[in-house]
Amino acid sequence: MSRGGPTLYITGLGLSPRNITTEALEVMRLVDVVFLETYTSKGPVEFMNYLRSIRNDLILVSREDLENRNGDVIMRELERGHDAALLVFGDPMIATTHAAIAVIAKRHGFNVKIVNSVSIVCALLSQLGLSPYKLGSIATVTYPRMGVLSTRAYDVLGDNLKRGLHTILLLDIRDDEGFMSANEAVDILRRLEEERKLGIVNERLLVIYVARLGWVDHRIVVSTVNNVPDIGDTPHTIVIPGLLNPVEVDYLVHVLNASKDFVDNHQRFIHSLTVENK
Amino acid sequence: MSRGGPTLYITGLGLSPRNITTEALEVMRLVDVVFLETYTSKGPVEFMNYLRSIRNDLILVSREDLENRNGDVIMRELERGHDAALLVFGDPMIATTHAAIAVIAKRHGFNVKIVNSVSIVCALLSQLGLSPYKLGSIATVTYPRMGVLSTRAYDVLGDNLKRGLHTILLLDIRDDEGFMSANEAVDILRRLEEERKLGIVNERLLVIYVARLGWVDHRIVVSTVNNVPDIGDTPHTIVIPGLLNPVEVDYLVHVLNASKDFVDNHQRFIHSLTVENK
């Protein structure tokens, strides 16, 4: 496939087999060796089965392989003159690991190509009818590490709300590879509210709960932090809108079935936060 | 394809035929009528030819059709009991128009499905090795309208830089459907600098110029505002990084061939802006 030496294709898979692009399919079919990275994100069993139906010689790579051993397992194949693909769920963008592997391959003198796919970040905005121009900083709600709970997600949410911006909260993955649920994430946000007391995580806050985005059975439910809906299997994501324009309000009410009163109340709440800020 | 009444599939096409997902292909092949929206974004001739090779009965829809006539041309097909697809370049997220059409279809009692694809926003971060956690607000550099030049893109850039965040500047589309070039965008940013004098658009600012992202012949060149490189055909995009972490620096230098001195100088410049801000 490549000209002028071996190429590493860092290849996004999207959120489900339906998101796989014609380019990703071509790469998967034509390269000599295919690796799959399964620790910065994960695919449900159906996704794994789909990938194996295309390449049954798929090699799984761990955090250990990529970070502690500098991707040696991949570099060895390139050194043998083989083209290789490193498959990644979503778009290869969220994790620093992928950029680091691209740098290592380049320093070894190999070609690197990034194959884009559907990212959770853009897919969320699209499915929720939210304007990308009002997206605030993105954060991940994380489990306590060594007994310490990071306040970053809560602080980012507070900062975005005071600016009237939308917040995407991605949820952590446990070391045993389970995904954090929306319920766990809300518990953590409530604990942080008790600690930091910005007055943002309370019953007035409108929360959009999302499960299995990109799959046919995805669920999107608008609710509060006091009433976390049952949205079924993980992966889950949480989105908290800032100030909404009229089309965003209509989309929430008519397409996502949110109650108009509830949306109006949220608007007043966010407005009070942005006014305080001025 | 649909159950329980006609369905409108608002379907992203990605940035080039290589980005087309298996789901988008299925929708294009199976629905009764396929519309293509060509005014919020556009596809080069090769893209149009590719789409026509799949559906030679493709119907082009204008701003007039969707905004002034409330998508009547589409609603009529749904009323006849037909499933319809509205194809959109990129991911159907940037334009308010798409959310508005979804709301209209829902209010008429039809099903709406959003089919995600590769978005310019996420694809840029991915190709440039920039962390999505440090993405600031997104803006579009626009032509003067009725003789007035909007300062929004410049103000957003200033705000992001003072916060150390990355800025994606999308470029306008003219009414005659030509794309704004990087050269034109830089001219506009310089004019705004003269007017607003935040001291941000000057020779110390590192700018990443991108052309034809998503195509095999895409170009990515790191330079300054004083030296806009020839990056070939439009569409163009401009990305201005904020404070960079070590992997982002390595990616710029080793993968995108930026000069290390130049990157270090930019870091010092942004640092000085963020310090002033504190």
From the N-terminal CA to the C-terminal CA of chain A, the straight-line distance is 56 Å
Output the CATH topology of the largest domain in chain A.
Methyltransferase, Cobalt-precorrin-4 Transmethylase, Domain 2
Give a short account of the largest sheet of chain A.
Answer: 5 strands, parallel
User: What is the assigned CATH homologous superfamily of the largest domain in chain A?
Assistant: Tetrapyrrole methylase, C-terminal domain
How do the strands of the widest beta sheet of chain A line up side by side? 3-2-4-1-5
- Most extensive interface, residues per chain? A-B, 55 and 55 residues
Domain Tetrapyrrole methylase (chains A, B): 7-227
Pathway (chains A, B): Protein modification; peptidyl-diphthamide biosynthesis
Subunit structure (chains A, B): Homodimer.
Keywords (chains A, B): Methyltransferase, S-adenosyl-L-methionine, Transferase
